[in-house]
Structure formats: C-alpha cells, structure tokens
Write a structure and sequence with these properties.
Blueprint: E1 14-16, E2 20-23, H1 26-37, H2 42-56, E3 66-73, E4 78-84, H3 94-99, H4 121-132, H5 139-152, E5 154-155, H6 158-166, H7 168-172, E6 194-195, H8 198-210, H9 213-216, H10 219-229, H11 237-241, E7 246-248, E8 251-255, E9 258-262, H12 269-279, H13 284-287, H14 292-312, H15 323-326, H16 329-336, E10 359-366, E11 372-380, E12 426-430, E13 436-443, H17 447-460, H18 466-471, E14 475-480, E15 485-491, H19 496-504, E16 508-513, E17 523-529, H20 532-535, E18 543-547, E19 554-557
Parallel strand pairs: 15-16
Antiparallel strand pairs: 1-18, 2-10, 2-19, 3-4, 3-11, 4-7, 5-6, 8-9, 9-12, 10-11, 12-13, 13-17, 14-15, 17-18
Helix pairs in contact: 1-2, 2-4, 2-5, 5-8, 12-14, 12-16, 12-17
Length: 563
C-alpha cells in the first residue's frame, strides 16, 4: 500500500435545495441522504451517519467513544447542544494512581485501561434522536443502514486504510484478545478490500432493540467491564448504568455580525471564540489571505486562547469555569495588547497538561425544513486504547488521557469527572435575525478550534465558498512539552517566502507539511444556507456544501420538488 497522499484533483461546492449531507466517507454520506429522503430530519440522519462511520472508519470513531452535537431548529431559530462525553470511573483517583506509580511527571501510557472513560456515544445517539429527531423514524430504522453495511461488508477507503494500518499494532497486541475482530487474518484491511464487522452489527441491533440499556447493561456492558478490568482498569457496572448525556446551552460570540456557536466546557470550543474575539480588533481582510501578517496575527491570537483553554477548560459541573469572563469583549481587548505584530511570543502561562490525539470524525446534515445538525464523534487517539470488548466489534476510547494529573489543575482527574475534551461541532447564525448561516467543523485534536477560526475567516473575510474554505492551506500551532516552545506548522501550499518571513519574526516554523502528515491540519465539512459569504446576506434557499480533500469524504444533496 502506497504511503503517498497527493492532492491532484479539485472539487466544486455541492449546491442543492432539499437536504444535504457532508461527511468524511462517501458511503456514510449516502446513508445520511437516504434517511432524509425517507422522511427523517437532520438529527435522524446524523445518528445514521455516526453509526455508518463507526463501520467504515473504526480507527477514528465509534460507539466506544464520545460525541457532541449542535442542533439548529429552523422553526424557532434556536441552537441546542448535547454533551455526550463520558466520565472517569468512580473508583479511580489521583491517590490510587500515585500508589501505582503514576503522576504528573510519570503519566499513564496513552493506551492504559485507566484512560477508558465511560463511552458516551451510545447514550448521545439515542438522546439526539429522542430530543431533536423527526419522531417519524425508529432508532432501528435509523441504525439499519449501518447494520447492513457491517454485515454485508464495504470496501475500505484510502485514508482510512492508511490510518488503520498505521495503528493496527494496538489491535495486534497480546493483551488485546479480541483485537483481531477488527483485522483480516491479523492485518489491517487494504485500500479497496472488503471488510465485514458482524459483531458491531449485533451491538447496533442491541442498542436499537433495547435503547441505552442494550449498551450500558447486559452482555455489552459486561464485555466492556471485563476487557477494562482484565487490563488493569477500574470501570464498573455502576459507572456504565448511571451514565447520562447532558443537554447544554451552547456558548457563542459575535464576529462582525455573525454569531458563532460552540459546545461549552468541558469542550474546547471556547478556544475558537476567544481567538475570534481578539481577531475582530484587526483588519484581517486587508492583511491578505495567508500572508505573513495574517498567519502571524492568527497564530498569536490562537496561542493566547489555547493557553487559557488548557487551564480553564474542565468539567463545569465539577469546577467553576469563568466562561462569561473569558468570552467578554473586554477580556479580548486586554488580550490583544499582548500581541506584537512584529514578534512571535513564546510564553505559555499555564503549561501543557496532556498529549495530543487527532483521530475523530466530523459531519454535518441539513434537511428540507431548514434544520441543521453539527455532529462530532471520536475515539480520541487512533482506535483509542485499542481494547476490544468480546463480541462487540468496537474499540474503547482513551479520552481519560486528557486529564491533568496535577492536583491543583482545574482539569485534574477525579472520580466521576469528565475530562477536557478536544472534539467540537460548530455553527454560525446571523446575529440580528438568528437565521442559519452555516453548520461546520474541523476534526483533529487541538487543530479543531484553529480549523474553525481559519475556515470561518476564509468565508467571512475572504469570500470563499465552503469548498474553497476547506481546500485552502492551513496553519497549526502547538506548544511542545519537550522544549517548552510554540511550534508553527504550515501546510504545503504556503510559499517559501511566507515561511521565511515568519521565521524572521521568531516563529519555529515547520514547512512544508505534505503527504499523510497533513492529518495534523484536520478534516472538515461545511454546509451554508445561501451564498452569504459573497454578499454578507442570505441570498437564497440554496444549500452550499464542501468536504475536506484531506479525507475520503464528500458532500451530497438533492433538490426538493418545490424549490
């Protein structure tokens, strides 16, 4: 299997008037579209897509992980949020980890079973349908396409095949008795090879027949508990059976007449909003797209917002998070004073508490009624822990790796607490009318808020259509524990003189990033209502959609009879 990932084609944005789906996998996109055509709404189709992606891209996502959802209700013009993240086992504590030899200086290995938090996706899928669904389709009807796909098999896509092979060692471990369920003759499937997962199909059947109890109690729950505890973890039946999703009030800020929506902490969506607040003070458009001034200014704003987020973002049910203060325009004005347009900053007041993971799926769906669902689902690092419960066909996430092991940190590990979460869906509405402008997101660890900022600015400031906004080369900034410095990564497509200019300003620049290493820049999807990015007005009822060329996916739509 070749390791090269060449960008040799172009895509036009999808335009349609009925429903529209944009995902990271064409088969999943088609399944979402079929649900819409059969009478389901955006929420119904989103859950069908989430299940389908578990089948086709199990390295990145699945029912053994977590998810978040934003839902725009066209009739009321309201944005709703659902937090589908799981919690730390109640028997796990900093004190116990210390007894086992783990602390801030000697953290848990990323794949340790202690990093398995309660899988929240199953409950959130059920709740998304019950809270926001059309009520015209049963959960069995919504999950049936994914069940069929898992039983009959599907040909594995190119990027998925590369990722599968890249971390197949987790499934091949001697400690992972049932990892072979996600392999073919002990190896990762190749590009175009048919793969079947009947065990996952049975898991979906159990969820569709028995609801949440079909996952959090009974055979599946016991299989989860057994594989975790046999590998040194402490997750138990009480942790699973008491798990609930949480309806949340999305947080937002305004950027030049546009209201941008994110999930509140424990999600890192606040990072994008803080950065946008700061960037509103600059003449971004006049700098020129991806110019040295633009990249420098965006990077410096992101550094400040990332630093705050890595300290303050935590489970707001357990610890107070000053969300209102952090999102105030007054705070942004204060922060802007720390940005030197001529020189890169290397300060990071709060440090960097955890290791990065970047394996997730983001997708978005809109329906003929104007409802929209922005949805994200993740195992965290490829295949998460890699642990496969017997007869279940999915891996368990390692989201607990995002806890800090420092006792004084707001995001420190504690029994029953949810960890800092990287995954974030987003939306934008018109600030004065609350009309939907777009449902969008960019997956990929700490790239996600950085991607949100960049693709939104591509549309708002530079008039790009959704596909162009995703196609454009991206930057990524990361603070490294090893040298305690900020590193700036520039994707292939930035000219060399831009990289040199940024180096002269003090940035530690890595350029050009090519091939499969582009995965650090994430993969996104966007659906907009009308062509407001051209005129700042909603010009029509046409949906415009794009899908990221860095992934395997596509956007598809259909036209309604009465446009």
């Amino acid at each position: 299997m070749t390791s090269m990932l060449e960008f040799i084609s172009r895509r036009s944005p999808i335009v349609c008037t009925g429903g529209c789906v944009a995902t990271n996998q064409p088969l999943a996109t088609q399944i979402g579209l079929d649900i819409l055509k059969n009478g389901g709404n955006a929420a119904d189709a989103a859950v069908a897509v989430a299940a389908a992606l578990n089948v086709t891209e199990p390295c990145s996502t699945g029912i053994g992980g977590d998810c978040f959802c934003l839902f725009y209700e066209a009739e009321t013009k309201k944005v709703y949020g659902l937090n589908g993240s799981g919690r730390c086992p109640t028997a796990l504590s900093l004190e116990l980890l210390k007894q086992e030899g783990f602390d801030e200086d000697n953290p848990l290995p990323p794949t340790h079973a202690h990093n398995v938090t309660v899988p929240g996706a199953a409950a959130a899928w059920v709740d998304t349908v019950s809270l926001f669904g059309s009520k015209k389709m049963s959960l069995r009807e919504i999950l049936q396409p994914a069940i069929d796909l898992a039983e009959s098999g599907f040909p594995v896509s190119e990027v998925s095949a590369f990722q599968w092979n890249d971390t197949a060692h987790k499934l091949q471990s001697n400690n992972n008795k049932f990892g072979a369920d996600l392999l073919i003759n002990g190896q990762a499937p190749q590009h175009g090879q048919l793969f079947r997962n009947p065990s996952l199909a049975n898991t979906f059947k159990s969820l569709s027949q028995h609801g949440k109890k079909g996952f959090y109690e009974g055979r599946i729950a016991q299989a989860i508990i057994h594989v975790v505890q046999s590998n040194g973890g402490l997750l138990d039946q009480n942790d699973l059976s008491t798990h609930v999703s949480e309806e949340v009030q999305p947080i937002c800020t305004t950027y030049k007449g546009i209201k941008v929506w994110e999930i509140p902490p424990n999600s890192q969506g606040i990072t994008a909003l803080m950065a946008l607040n700061m960037l509103e003070s600059f003449s971004v458009k006049e700098m020129g797209h991806n110019s040295a001034d633009y990249v420098h200014t965006v990077t410096e704003a992101l550094k400040l917002s990332i630093t705050d987020c890595h300290w303050y973002c935590a489970d707001s049910v357990v610890v107070p998070v000053p969300t209102q203060e952090l999102l105030s325009k007054a705070y942004a004005t204060k922060q802007v004073k720390h940005i030197d347009i001529k020189r890169a900053s290397q300060s990071n007041t709060h440090g960097y508490p955890f290791e990065m993971g970047s394996d997730t799926v983001y997708f978005t769906v809109v329906d003929v009624h104007g409802n929209a669902c922005s949805f994200i689902n993740s195992n965290y690092m490829n295949f998460g822990t890699g642990l496969v419960p017997e007869g279940c066909g999915f891996t368990l996430q390692n989201r607990g790796n995002n806890f800090s092991l420092s006792p004084g940190h707001p995001n420190c590990l504690a029994p029953g607490k949810r960890p800092f979460h990287t995954i974030i869906p987003a939306m934008a509405t018109k600030a004065d009318t609350e009309d939907l402008l777009c449902s969008f997101g960019v997956m990929g660890g700490f790239m996600q808020p950085q991607g949100h900022v960049q693709v939104l600015l591509n549309m708002v400031e530079f008039g790009m259509n959704p596909q162009q906004a995703l196609d454009a080369p991206r930057l990524y900034v990361e603070y490294m524990k090893e040298d305690q410095k900020w590193h700036l990564y520039l994707e292939d497509g930035f000219p060399g003189n831009i990289a040199e200019d940024l180096k002269a300003r003090g940035h530690l620049v890595h350029w050009p990033i090519t091939d499969h290493e582009r995965n650090i820049f994430g993969r996104g999807q966007i659906i907009t209502k009308g062509d407001w990015w051209r005129s700042c007005e909603i010009g029509s009822n046409v949906w415009w959609a794009g899908s990221d060329p860095r992934g395997d996916g596509c956007a598809l739509g259909y036209c309604s009879v009465n446009n």
